[in-house]
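Dear support,

We are seeing what looks like truncated structure output for some complexes. This example has two components. We would appreciate it if you could run it in full and send us the complete token output so we can diff it against ours.
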Amino acid sequence: MIRFENVTKQYPTGNTALDDVTFTIDRGEFVFVVGPSGSGKTTLFRLLIRDAVPTSGNILIGDWDLVTLPKNKIHKLRKNIGMVFQDLKLLRDRTIYENIMFPLEVGDMDTQEARMQVETIIERVGITEHKDKFPIQLSGGELQRAAIARALAFSPEILLADEPTGNLDNATSWEIIKLLQDINESGTTIVMATHNADIVNSLRNRTLILEKGKLTKDQHSKHKKTEHAEHKEKL
Amino acid sequence: MRAAKTTLKHIRRSPYQSAAAVFIMMLTFLSITAFAFIVFGSSAVINFFESKPQVTAFFKDTVSQQNIDSLRSQINQTGMIASTKYVSKDQALQIYKEQNKKDPLLLDLVTADILPASLEISTVKIEDLGPVSQLLQKSPYVSEVVYQKDIVSTLARWTNAIRIVGISLIVILTVVSIFIMMTVIGFKVSQKRDEIEIMRLLSATNWYIRWPFMLEGIFYGTIGTIIGWIIATGGLLYFSPYLQTFLQGIPVFPISPLFLVGLLVGELVLAVFLGILASSLAVLRYLK
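Here is the complete output from our reference environment:
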């Protein structure tokens, strides 16, 4: 589904954000990308949504070749990839409902159909009672759910989440993880960047470890159903 | 529809900037309309003079009709002539009688013999009057050449000066209005930089982002034009009685409503173009 082949990304400043990174992610996987700040996690996500192009190497997502993808097709690619940004990027002057509606408006979806879709997603992520509030009125966890809801607007095949638990307390972090697991169980491929060792160690999903732009370890899933069930119970 | 709603929101949220943009467009199109009236009026005045016999050549009494015809055909071949009209001694007497019919004493003293035959000549361009007049003066059949050299040349000079000043003023105002619209729209684009960035990341096409700003430019241009046109046309209609007295005998008035509507339509097309140009330039650097 996602294929990185010897991808290197060097910024004009000379900083090498990713250095010869190669991996593949299959449909339906839930993969963590782990690494310290500046290790290249955000760059990896920017490359996946074609917000940046690699200096060398190839990136394939399904049938899309991201290196040769013409600019006028980028918006089509982005409809297939939901992204939860590290800084959320919610529009402050719009309600949560309007924020989730926004990509559907941009994508020119029929208004009636878009409304139904937004209602369904809002219910799915559990923020129905907050839909008419503005971002400033919501807590960190609620905002994170709103950002996830917006990323799900087009029912994407892939969901990228850049440190969605970064600023959340432990309990709220686990609520977000549970939500992402539910989304993953419905068939969506999830790639999540995180610093949270507790989450990574507990879930034992496949983990890509980045250090100074290099993929130092691709640790495949040792997922134990019993532990997974244990966490669910914990929640 | 969504783009139009967004445009109205942009305008509503920064009314003073919007008013400034409309005001400068109004000034530009007020000048363009006023200039169009001046050009139209001066053209009508020049046409009036051009349509009148501008050079009159009086023939010597001894000149035969054959010589006159030969001279007439010679000047017609210069390519500078719009029309020529021969006035015989008898016709000259008729004209004299008509002009002095209120004074029988003057009529009694004059016969066809003492009035010269003449040729009344209109040229294609005012500038051709001089060469034609010189040509006639050189002819051995002509006793005198008369033409309103000073009036016509002064009028031509003024018309040219008005055209140069008017065009310069319009060019300057057009450039200024483009820059002001670019500044106003550019400021709004800059305020919405984050939103534009989010739109792009959420799969918006460049046209989705660009449209509301383009409509905003078109809005300023259109409203400014309509106000400018109304003020200029209203002013013209208000001053019409005074101008009619001043331009007595010259058929400038009434101005055709078709001309006024045509002018408005032309200006609206220009305004839409300017609006699109200014907003495109303002948005361009944020969509690279």
